[in-house]
Amino acid sequence: MRHYYRILDRIVKEHPYFPRIRFHDLRHTHATLLLKAGIHPKIVQERLGHSSINVTLDTYSHVLPNLQEAVLKNISDSITGESISTEEPTLLY
């Protein structure tokens, strides 16, 4: 992590208006983007090093508010034979 801040300091010296982003913020953004992309929470838990999947789900549950709706749409599309929309990622768990 020290190396991250050394690199960030060099960037800020050259570009004073560059935002000083904390390492923890990058970690949180990484997890959020993975979950929004439909990556299984167990994979996210392993990447973050959380002791259990409950820690990951409790911390990032706000990212998955439409999970039930996505599952219902997938089931509905499977039953009716309609194609699944590609506009938003399909979450399958």
How would you explain this protein's 3D organization?
- The protein has 93 residues and is mostly helical.
- The protein has five helices and no strands.
- Helix 3 (41-48) packs across helix 4 (53-60).
- It starts with a helix and ends in a 13-residue tail after the last helix.
Class of secondary structure makeup: mainly alpha
According to DSSP, the number of beta strands is 0
pLDDT averaged residue by residue: 84
Oligomeric state of the chains present here: single chain
How many alpha or pi helices?
A: 5
Give, in order, the helices and strands.
HHHHH
Distance between the termini: 33 Å
- Report Rg: 18 Å
The low-pLDDT segments are: none
**Strand content bin:** under 5%
Helix content: 55-70%
Outline type: elongated
Biggest β-sheet strands, sense, barrel: none
Characteristic terms for this protein:
elongated, mainly alpha, 93 residues
List the helices and strands and how they pair.
Layout: H1 2-14, H2 23-36, H3 41-48, H4 53-60, H5 67-80
Helix pairs in contact: 2-3, 3-4
Quick take:
It contains five helices and no strands. Helix 2 runs antiparallel to helix 3.
